[in-house]
Amino acid sequence: MTSMFPRSTFQLLALCLTLFSSSVWFFSSRTGGANGHSASYLHYGRAPPTPPADVNVNVDVTESAHDPIWDIQNRTLGFQKIYAISMPHRTDKRDFLALMALVSDLEIEFFDGVNGSEIHPTALPSFWSGEDGPGTIGCWRAHVDLYQKMVRERIQSALVLEDDADWDILIKAQMTEVARGTRYIQNATLPLHSPYGDNWDLLTVGHTGANNKPNKDQHYWLSKNDPTVIHPTRRTWGRTPDFSAPSLEGDYNRIIHEASKLTGTAGYAISLRGAARILYDQTMGQNARSIDTAMANICRRDPFGSPFCLSSYPMLFGRYRPAGPQDKDSDRRLSTNEAGGAVPQSKDIRTEAVSEFTVFPASLNVQRLLMSESVIPANDPDTDLLKEIDVSKAVLPRGKGVFVREGEYVEFNKILADRKKEEEAAQKSGGVKRDESVEIDARTEGQEKVDIEHRALRFRRMR
């Protein structure tokens, strides 16, 4: 009689392999195991629906596979962390950011804001040069707490967002181009640890105005006719750079440059080195002031030797304003937590949500992206370069390096020439000899005058 059991070790091994293979096939066919999907989808081999974060966005990356620029396609845009500073009780704002992060395939960690009125008096800065009021102090402390965390935990880089930040659905493509620009300005070459180069402190990509440095020869990164750039008529902020050099002119250009000053902190990236330097400046350096003013002061002085601030102009990160009472917009400006001299927020009701300073905002397109739609309308089709964009097909233009000499800035040099004429006329009429020891740097003052003239000219055009 023939035995039904295997007669040798070889036959036993073959039987075990057969049973194991059958088991793997049986269970994987019911869980979609080959695709890595959850076992909760029991539809016999069919993959579950595509999650909304898988909406395909074209990003033009042709660099070497060993280049860290590819890391920008991860969920933290090539930084070690993305943090959103938010008061713990503002769960409404955290809801918005969670949804916007999902449809953009980003991973955002919330970092608790600080109520300035609860800071112990002995912990307040001994030398404070900023606005008074618990709102401003609390905002400053929250950012400084984050720098302290980066220093303690050796976090190499972070993108820091305020909880009303908004961004373009093409943010990964935009930041890829920013990285090319920051590398060009740093003259960075492989190998690199960061996709943005290894010699930067602060990347201000969510300001509400920034100045460049027209008082020196320098490099820029220029992307012409970028459909994610807002038209000049939508740039309602006061601080503007001098891009009057012929090679920089254009309404839809995005320019990466060294920044001398900035306003606003809706979004910025900071390296560990930059976090340590600001932490020192704001605590042991006795220069404490509202956080964006502190950053602008360091950008202007460059006290650590290398250019501290690199910027994208216009900005990449704007602001989301939901429908509802407008006095919910800012926790810093609430009537019970308002800095001295601040303009009170309006108590009017906003009937529709708006996104400021963006073209294809994540906030206003959450529903479309949750439905896996790829055609996204422009925020302001009357002025934006394109009325809509298909994110599965569109590719942003590739930028190029531009070198500009000091003498090429038309407006800046006109102001310097006018100033020189005024001084010569004053000397002839009064016989006054210029005192070099107390003279204000003409270039610095000239840059401020350019900024004021830009502002006046823009408002005249808007009328």
From TrEMBL:
Q: Which residues cross the membrane?
A: none
Q: Which residues form the signal peptide?
A: 1-26
Domain Glycosyl transferase family stretches: 80-279
Name the InterPro entries for this protein: Collagen_mod_GT25, Glyco_trans_25
Enumerate the residue ranges of region (Disordered): 321-345, 421-445
> Which is one GO molecular function term here?
transferase activity
Keyword presence, Glycosyltransferase: yes
Q: Does the keyword Glycoprotein apply?
A: no
Q: Which UniProt keywords apply?
A: Glycosyltransferase, Signal, Transferase
Biased composition, Basic and acidic residues: where in the chain?
Answer: 326-335
Give the family, as the similarity comment puts it: Belongs to the glycosyltransferase 25 family.
Under the heading PANTHER family, the entry gives: GLYCOSYLTRANSFERASE 25 FAMILY MEMBER, PROCOLLAGEN-LYSINE,2-OXOGLUTARATE 5-DIOXYGENASE/GLYCOSYLTRANSFERASE 25 FAMILY MEMBER
Task: Return the protein name.
Answer: Glycosyltransferase family 25 protein
Organism, scientific name: Lophiostoma macrostomum CBS 122681
At the highest ranks, the source species' classification is: Eukaryota, Fungi, Dikarya, Ascomycota, Pezizomycotina
